[in-house]
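Help!! Second protein's tokens look totally different from the first
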Amino acid sequence: MATNSRREFLKDAAMGAAVLAAGPAARALGANDRVRVGMIGVGGRGQELLHEVLRVPNVQLVAIADIYSRRREEAKKLAPEIQTLDDHRRLLDMKDIDGVLVASPLHIHARHFLDALAAGKDLYSEKTMTWSIPEAEQCRAAATKSDRVIQIGLQHESSGSLADARKWIKDGIVGKITQVESWMSRNTPRGKGQWVRAVPPDCTAENVNWKAFLNGRPERPFDGFRFMNWRLYWEFSGGNVTENMVHQIAWIMSALDLPLPAAAYMSGGVFSEKDGREVPDTIVVTLDFPGDVVVTWQSTFSNSRYGLGERLLGSDGTVEHVAGANDMVSGRSAESIRYYPEKVNRPEGAALTGESRTQNHMANWIDCIRSRKTPNATVEIGYRSAIAAHMANLSYRRKQRITLEEAMSAQPEF
């Protein structure tokens, strides 16, 4: 953030902490009570979450807030009974809302995260938890002081594949894991870059609260293309690392119970489509972890053959999780997790196929609002995966290996 913007953010965070300390009252819920929720941000991802929460039994979507009139109108069509607001603070003032879903652009996550907790609301915050490391520190500190139920939108934390991987590792059949390979690949028609969206005719300064979108960034005239395509620019986004890698890194860190990385290195560039984007579309990340573990993640936006996956390479066996790898003949894809023994150390070991069921990530949050239990994707894994992602991006932008100490002392860069 710019100096003044950072000062304003810290001031707002301090005010939020003061409200948290006051301990705002929340409606007590029984096991069968209807949970009333609101949403901040109902763009593409927000509307997906809107559909998800509407499918959870005994949940009522009360209101949504969005700074773009089109999004408010679209949400109203999906849920005609809701109240639509143009300012998230008005939604947070509603006393009968139990929980709030945040699906705003990445660079506004922290503001909405802190404001929701300060208002005494339980919270579902989309990944990546924050746009920067200082914001991650602020949100983690606020969550620690709060008694609110907080779920981060790291859906892989509710997956059956993670439960299977954890079990196999705990059972000792994987042995000493020193290396993890992971990848994610996509493709688009030539000339049509990933994430590039058309600007609707009504995307104008009259229909968008541009100042709220900038969220402390340097003022400039309204830019409909940047508003619609914020994922392409560093000042609003962390690119593919915060959109996709963070899911898999969180899964890996949870499976192996890894701390923060000791160092990160990222190479790549804008190679697939030269369309003016700032964030890279071709990436190789290396994360060094304490305890002699190295994790790699590679990604391209110009080939989708191998989908996404992870391989945990152990002395006694391999855990391979794949999703989206295309069958050569049918073209179909399927998700699977399997264990393969290393015969040199487990000569009698047998191959295994995971059978654990994936939980509904949204329903898990709603259940925890009622029970006050801890959701599957905690603030802690949201924090650790965010730090790992930001370390990778810092390395790429500085063109050098970044240690944890260097990353934690670095100032955010637009």
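Here's the second one for comparison:
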Amino acid sequence: MILWFEWFRCVQQLRPACSRHRTFLWMTLALAGLCIRNDLAGVTSLVRVLGLRGRCYRCFLNLFHSSGLKQAVLESCWTQAVVKLFTPFRLEGRLVFIADGLKVAKEGLKMPAVKKLHQSSSNNSKPSYIFGHSLQALGLLVSGPLGHLCCVPLCSPIHEGVVFSNRDKRTLLDKLALLFLGVVGGIDAPGAILVADAYYASGKIIKPLLQRGYHLISRLRSNAVAYYRPEVPAKRGRGRPPTYGQKVRLNTLWETACEHFCDAPSPVYGETHTTLRYYTIDLLWRPVGQLVRFVLVEHPLRGRIMLMSTDLTLSALQIITGYGYRFKIEVAFKQALHTLGTYAYHFWMRMMSPRPQRSGNQHLHHKSSDYRDQVRRKLAVYQRYIQLGCIAQGLLQYLALYFRQSVWAAFKSWLRTMKTAQPPSEAVVAQALRDALPEFLLGAPDDHNLKKFLLENIDFDRCPPLRLAA
């Protein structure tokens, strides 16, 4: 029962995002359903898992379409709640954020922003091309009491698929930079570090971050080049002095600087008795026009990788450590897709124009203002659903890290790999919350808002255990 009390205490911090108290209660039920559902069949799964009456399906649809649930305020409240509830992991005293892109398959012909997307992945289970939504996600790296790290999702907006104005020339990199600056600007995070993959190692990301005092740790492509500092002549000649010196292809340093590589125990989490070799060099990088720290790493099992950091105060091992945590967002994606169903939304736009089979971005500047407003409304529905999914996953992570013993005590099932001394997964926490719901309805005070609202909407004919608990 303590799990539900703590769960509701955390949810109450999101109350400013709802214009009415009843909207907040329906949002609470939606979050509860997202946390404990055992199938990913859209909104209907929320009604089934909570045992609600059939009319609640329409109420949930109204919630996701309602302007009373303010998306921007919800993101801000959740970000501030994450910083308060969790213990953020700090690298040299600074918060670490992780960003990555995600492509979710959607086959609906009446869904805005669906386009043909290319998946560049070495995983042979993924097709090269899909129709779906292109999203970018941002998470915060946090640490639990036992030292376990996880990436708490903050937001995951759709950044591709529709163009409302032909004057909008922003790329995915521009949009991610604005997303990161907007999130970090709402909290106290001076000098925050963004960890991302090689796609984001670009001047469009780095320049806006450096202007605000933030930094990037990323991987480099194999064809990356940099420059030495220009030599200062004894006597200045005519013309502008050179900005860059000799050009260096970074992948050639494996052979030309092999004698300068250092050996060190691997700082990557989960690796023991592993020694890697690395080489550090500060060079001028043309995309940003200033010195950048490059780290070439040779791992005995994973091969070679080139990393970069815009923060010259970080050591090579700290850069390797920071980039090693990037995989935490991949783990979060897996849980969001297969356990939470964060991206398993099905909302159609009845008046949408037919989408061609070979479709790209949907250009709407030739459409009527009413049509564009309908598209914006439907995209806002997707964003509310995704944001509530991110919040639900964060709540499960919070209970797993800080209420580990209570979760395992409420877990009325069995796993072959159960390790009660370690924090449970999101799936285990969801199962524990499902098992503890009747106990919560039985033992919670009668004036508890969540209990009262649940009892008003539960269909006891379909849920005899809840009838006994109530």
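Reply: Different proteins will give different token patterns, so don't panic. The chain has two domains: 2-197+329-464, 199-231+239-325.
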